[in-house]
Amino acid sequence: GAVVSQHPSRVICKSGTSVKIECRSLDFQATTMFWYRQFPKKSLMLMATSNEGSKATYEQGVEKDKFLINHASLTLSTLTVTSAHPEDSSFYICSARRFVYNEQFFGPGTRLTVL
Amino acid sequence: KQEVTQIPAALSVPEGENLVLNCSFTDSAIYNLQWFRQDPGKGLTSLLLIQSSQREQTSGRLNASLDKSSGRSTLYIAASQPGDSATYLCAVGPQSTSGTYKYIFGTGTRLKVLA
Question: Is A80 an 8 Å CB contact of chain B?
Fold first, then answer.
């Protein structure tokens, strides 16, 4: 089956630093990847859609300068949280859509804690 | 704008009971619907995917049905076990002319199966 990995699984950083989260499709090519954020005891909120080789499309209310997304290859997308603050602490989950198919495969998530 | 609601928000049942989780959506023009399971602090595990042309899907003790016209899906869990305790999320993939196929998640049902 299709596997999506995320790295790191957990990260703790100081306020003001930048954190990069990687999302990889391990055994398939993903033309489109999605980044979600989940607050405690809440559902997943889509942050942005990234297409390989083009700029990401951000959902309304998501700061594109705060959450930088790069989809440099068909198997890798990265989310960089710039100048992180405690309110950015959250569970970030990526998903990848396999080319031609309409099913999304989700990564295991990254727990970000900003002190 | 598509909105996805899940009822009940929380459910506690004794082991062995059959149970039904509900998911409703406001726009029937969907591409597919997917049910996920999420354990505390973990990522998503895909349970069942129903294409818009399908009425139901089955996997082991799980059965998911889809009624697009009424905007409803149900997840039926037979002979529940304590290991089924988790949050169950449904996600709707709306039709998209841009081809992004982004999912909109429901609010989730927190299930606890008592031994």
Answer: no
